[in-house]
Write a structure and sequence with these properties.
The complex is a heterodimer of chains A (374) and B (324). By secondary structure, chain A is mostly helical. In chain A, 75% of the residues lie in helices and 0% in strands. Chain B has 324 residues and is mainly α. In chain B, strand 1 (32-35) and strand 2 (43-46) form a beta hairpin. Chain B is elongated, with a radius of gyration of 29 Å. Classes of the chains: A mainly alpha (374), B mainly alpha (324). The interface between A and B is large, with 80 and 85 residues.
């Protein structure tokens, strides 16, 4: 339907003579050759300026562009059909040329500022983000997130290694002296788990009965502002400071887990703890590792910029790192759901282990398989 | 910091400003960001003021805040919940409504949240290319890390832990001060995502002033050699305003202004013929057309006259050229 518009625009504007090229020198002499006294003498058609003619020839196209751009601004680019969108792009390029010419030949301030504003608006409309919301989301899930994760694998391994190093250190410290537990593990006032705890007390925490739904919801809400989520956020955000804060945070987290596990193993409830931790811990600790890996990647850009500016290198590394951070956020959310509901509904150790590691395997499958080009 | 006192520095700055061409002084807006689109025509955009951005932010927060309060009320009506839970849920839902809200609206409306649309602001990419999805996500995630998450934590921990509360507070203050300290008013997220918040340009096509078919006054080249583009465009501003003045006293003031301008032009250009008072506007319009034609012709020949000092400026630059 709107194809009828295209040929009308194209040739019409194309045929227009460019003023520099086509126009003969203006008959300025008519104004210049008045009598010696400068007698006021009416000068007729010649008074039309070159720049005024330039404007009058193109004004109609500018106004058409103006109308199209106004529609895009109000109702979005989807309010244009194919032909109109193409017309807008063509008119935009013509208006940009007009602006360029007008800057060279015209001194009309109103015209210059109008054209500049019009071209800028059209530029913003033509070069607006071209991806819809659904498209962006799908692309992230289907390919770009897992590609980023694969690209950052050395940093992810470094994050994992840091945490395991911390865990090992914590374990050895606990074996050396149980008092380290009180130093390393933060405890709430009514937390029975500690160096003085018995096997039964530990088991009672691991297999506590299901509370009401409200308690679960409450735990869910509390979780998101809990220790682990905060550590993940800061491990990523502080990575830019040359990796060091990330290392300290994750190492400390590892210490804490190592101590915690060593206590349970020492009391002979290692397998039960493994199940209890597995169901959400695989996802949750995985999220911390991923966030730490992302933080390391950003810090690596700062530390080793190569031939680039540190700022540029950091921005380049931040690109996949942000995707990894979003993956970590998704994992934290999943872990919150698992912790809030799964941990209390499922009391059997084998099921806990299967679900926890199964979900962990799914994450890994996503990162390794999605978005590979055939 | 130099030690010679703010008064001396201010004086020096004033001198420098006076030395700058009048054109620049009047025409350049305060903060301008120039983008070069792929078409290669430089475009200048005005950087959004902090006030406008604050207003937009306030509107967006109000919108998302109301939405999450409504959700929490709905939940509280469905299940009977404790106040503690409601508080936690509110903080949680506010986050889950707010974070996607900014990303989604900026993607849908081409860099504009509803608040920004209201304040006529827009996020653009600093390099002149189209705003990438990645940049939108990054700048809005950074917004969470900059202000909202520390703010929420501040509300939660302030009672128990004064040290971390002070830390959070100083972090927020520093982060909020960053846009005030850089020329392009970028916050941390803008710097990392390489985006800038600008004002949307408004385009209004004014009528052509030099389109008069019959000129009643004519001017010699020697009449037209005195002024430059700055004076021409000032005259243009006066003429455009002259048609808009309404009311008796405004008419009188306008006539007085026009009379003064006509007198100045005639004195400077040695225009000897008398101009009747009724013809002042017509005289100025004809002078504008003739002067513009003259200057535009000069400009086509490669001689740009910025203002009435163009002759002294040309003479001043001459010896430099000889020396070098």
């Amino acid at each position: 339907m709107s194809f009828s518009e295209i040929p009308r625009t194209g040739p019409k504007t194309g045929r227009k003579p460019e003023p520099e090229r086509g126009a003969a020198p203006r008959p300025k002499g008519t104004t210049g050759t008045t009598g010696p006294a400068g007698e006021p003498r009416p000068t007729a058609e010649a008074a039309i300026l070159r720049s005024a003619r330039f404007r009058s020839e193109r004004e109609e196209d500018w106004q058409r562009l103006d109308a199209l751009v106004a529609r895009v601004e109000r109702r979005g680019p989807r309010s244009l059909d194919f032909g109109e969108a193409r017309t807008m792009a063509t008119l935009y390029r013509q208006a940009a040329t007009s602006l360029s010419v007008a800057r060279a030949i015209s001194l009309d301030r109103a015209l210059l500022s109008y054209l500049e504003a019009l071209v800028t608006r059209a530029y913003l409309a033509v070069y607006a983000p071209q991806e819809g919301l659904g498209g962006a989301l799908w692309r992230f899930l289907a390919s770009s997130a897992s590609q980023a994760m694969r690209g950052l694998w050395p940093f992810m391994l470094a994050g994992l290694a840091t945490m395991m190093l911390g865990g090992l250190t914590g374990w050895l410290l606990f074996l050396e002296n149980e008092a380290w537990y009180d130093v390393l593990v933060p405890r709430g006032p009514d937390d029975v788990r500690g160096p003085e705890a018995t096997r039964e007390e530990l088991l009672s925490v691991i297999y506590d009965g299901g509370g009401s739904t409200l308690d679960e919801l409450s735990a869910f809400a509390a979780f998101l502002f809990s220790n682990n989520a905060r550590i993940a956020i800061f491990a990523f955000a502080l990575g830019a400071f040359a990796c060091l804060p990330t290392f300290i945070l994750i190492f400390y987290q590892g210490l804490f887990i190592g101590c915690f596990v060593a206590l349970h193993v020492d009391r002979g409830v290692g397998l039960d703890l493994f199940g209890w931790l597995s169901i959400h811990g695989v996802t949750e600790l995985g999220a911390i590792v991923v966030a730490a890996g992302a933080g390391y990647a950003v810090g690596f850009g700062v530390l080793f910029p190569g031939r680039e500016h540190r700022r540029t290198a950091m921005a380049r590394m931040a690109r996949p790192a942000v995707k990894a951070a979003i993956v970590a956020a998704l994992m934290l959310f999943a872990a919150a759901v698992l912790e809030g509901f799964g941990r209390q509904l499922i009391q059997d150790t084998t099921t806990r282990i299967v679900i926890g590691w199964g979900i962990g395997g799914l994450w890994l499958l996503w990162w390794l398989a999605a978005g590979r080009r055939a | 910091m130099s030690r010679d006192g703010w008064w001396a520095r201010r004086k020096a700055r004033r001198e420098a400003r006076r030395a700058a061409s009048a054109q620049n002084r009047r025409e350049m807006p305060q903060r301008v960001h120039e983008v070069i689109p792929p078409e290669g025509v430089p475009l200048s955009l005005t950087i959004a003021s902090m006030g406008a951005r604050f207003g937009a932010q306030l509107f967006d927060l109000l919108l998302t805040g109301l939405a999450s309060v409504a959700l929490v009320i709905a939940i509280a009506l469905l299940v009977d919940a404790s106040w503690n839970l409601i508080g936690g849920l509110l903080a949680l839902l506010f986050f889950f409504v707010r974070a996607p809200y900014y990303v989604a609206t900026e993607l849908i409306y081409g860099g504009r949240t509803p608040g920004k649309r209201l304040m006529r602001l827009r996020v653009i990419s600093a390099d002149g290319r189209s705003l990438a999805t990645y940049a939108v996500v990054l700048r809005n995630l950074m917004k969470e890390a900059e202000v909202f998450v520390p703010g929420t934590l501040l509300l939660i921990v302030s009672a128990q832990d004064p040290v971390s509360a002070i830390l959070m507070l100083s972090w927020i203050v520093i982060v909020l001060a960053i846009p005030l300290c850089n020329k392009r008013r970028q916050r941390l997220g803008d710097i990392i995502a390489r985006t800038i918040v600008v004002e949307e340009p408004q385009a209004l096509l004014m009528p052509e002033l030099a389109e008069r078919q019959k000129a009643r006054f004519s001017f010699q080249p020697h009449h037209l050699d005195h002024y430059g583009a700055y004076e021409l465009q000032t005259l243009e501003r006066v003429l455009r305003a002259a048609t808009e003045w309404r009311g008796k006293s405004a008419q009188i003031r306008r006539d007085n202004t026009l009379a003064v301008i006509v007198g100045k032009i005639r004195a400077r250009t040695d225009y000897v013929e008398p101009v009747a008072e009724a013809d002042h506007l017509a005289f100025l319009e004809d002078f504008y057309a003739a002067q513009r034609q003259h200057l535009e012709a000069r400009q086509l020949m490669g001689e740009r006259r910025a203002d009435k000092h163009h002759r002294t400026a040309a003479e001043a630059s001459q010896p430099d050229k000889e020396r070098s």
